[in-house]
Each structure stands twice: as C-alpha cells, then as structure tokens.
Write a structure and sequence with these properties.
The chain has eight helices and five strands. It is of the alpha/beta class. It has one domain (8-209): P-loop containing nucleotide triphosphate hydrolases (Rossmann fold). A five-stranded parallel sheet has the order 2-3-1-4-5, sandwiched between helices. Helix 1 packs parallel to helix 8 and helix 3 (66-91) packs parallel to helix 5. The two termini are 17 Å apart. 34% of the residues are buried. Bound molecules: thymidine-5'-phosphate. Thymidine-5'-phosphate (TMP) binds next to helix 4. Thymidine-5'-phosphate (TMP) is lined by residues 41-43, 57, 73, 98-99, 103-104, 107-108, 158. GO terms for molecular function: ATP binding; dTMP kinase activity.
C-alpha cells in the first residue's frame, strides 16, 4: 500500500444503537485531526447502490428469497467499492462507512441463517483484500434498541423483523468482534450519549494517533 492510502472506518450496530448521531461525531473527530473524509453508507453510496437499497429496504418485495437479498447486498457493495471506496482510498481520502460486510454476516448470516462460508466466498470475490482498518460496533441489548427505534416512523423491511431476529444479529456481531479484536472495538451504546462518545473518543484517539 502506498503512503497516500486513506484509512477505511466502518460503523455497525443493531436497531436503535444511535448510529446516525455517532457517525456525525466520528466524522467530526476525523476532520478535526485534519483528514479529508468521504462519508458513505451501505447498502447504497452510489446511484446504483441507492436503487438497490430501495429494493432491499422497501416493501415491494417483502417475500424476497434470502439468497437474492444476500446477492443484492454484494451487488451494491461491488459498485460501491469500484466507484467510490477504492478510488477515495487511493486518493488518500479517509472513508467512513455506515455499515459494511460485517452487517452481511450479522443480518444475512446471523439473522437469516445463511452460511458464513457462502458469505466469505462473496466477500473474497467482491472485495479481494479490502477490509476496514477499524470498525466501531455500537452494541446494546435488543430490548433497549427496539424501544429506542420504536419512536421512529414507518419501519423498513428489516425493521419489521421480530426481536429473535435482532438477537441473532447482535450475537453474530459480537462473535465477529471476538474473532477480530484488533479491528473491531465494541462500544457499549446503552448509556447516555456523553458516555458513549467518551468510549468513541478513546477508540478514535488510539487509532488517529496510531
Ligand atoms: P440502516 O443502515 O439505515 O440501519 O439500514 C440498512 C439496513 O440494511 C439495516 O437494517 C441492516 C441491513 N443490512 C443488511 O441486512 N446487510 C448488509 O450487508 C447491510 C450493509 C445492511
């Protein structure tokens, strides 16, 4: 990798974990450290990806086959990497992404029960060696997350799932964190914002000064 290569940071979490507000905060920390940052999301981040997002999250295809869902996630990701993530990193920009492939292991793997090996095959195909440099996992008990998320409007196709699905998602995320301790930092997202952001400060300080 050349000296100019940017860093790739992803943020993950279950429903109601406070991803949006904390993403804004993380972005401000990266910018304050003087790094140009591209802020993007999955599924989405490109015109094609955003259309695929509508197919995945909308209600026009509620009975979508699990494999179709998995492949659409990776189709959007392939476009996102080719058009957006890789070029930005190669320009020396940092990339801050709202969800990435850990979400596929958690939602399609843990939630839907698709095989990890199958996801790993697609990951290798679509990403080659590209992996995030740092992942912040906003973790909190499912009941708390669902009650926080419940106050929002119209649920999307995933938000309509039952608590047992989100429990499997959470467990899959925590297994990923255990398997990749150098990359994934678990942030306890249950307490108030100040305490959550203090944990983010610590994780980002270590990373920004590393
Ligand atoms: P959100 O980013 O606004 O939370 O919505 C994206 C939804 O898509 C969320 O419910 C998680 C889901 N998702 C997957 O199921 N697999 C994936 O690979 C990604 C990136 C997201």
């Amino acid at each position: 990798m050349s000296q100019r290569y940017g860093r790739f940071i992803t943020v993950e979490g279950g429903e109601g974990a406070g991803k949006s507000i904390n993403l804004d905060y993380i972005r401000s920390l990266i910018e304050a450290a003087g790094h140009p940052v591209l802020f993007t999301r999955e599924p989405g981040g490109t015109p094609l990806g955003e259309e695929v997002r509508e197919l995945l999250l909308g209600h026009r295809h509620t009975g979508m086959a699990d494999d179709a869902e998995l492949l659409l996630m990776f189709a959007a990701r392939a476009e996102h990497i080719a058009r957006c993530i890789r070029p930005a990193l190669e320009r020396g920009q940092w990339v801050l992404c709202d969800r990435f492939t850990d979400a596929t292991y958690a939602y399609q793997g843990g939630g839907r029960g698709l095989s990890e090996a199958r996801i790993a095959t697609l990951e290798q195909w679509v990403q080659g060696g590209l992996r995030p440099d740092l992942t912040l996992l906003l973790d909190l008990p499912v009941e708390i997350g669902l009650s926080r998320a419940g106050v929002r409007s119209e649920p999307d196709r995933f938000e309509r799932e039952q608590a047992a699905f989100f429990q499997r998602v959470r467990e899959a995320y925590l297994r990923i964190a255990e398997a990749h301790p150098a990359r994934v930092t678990v942030i306890d997202a249950a307490p108030g914002l100040e305490r959550v952001q203090a944990q983010i400060d610590r994780a980002m300080h270590g990373f920004l000064s590393g």
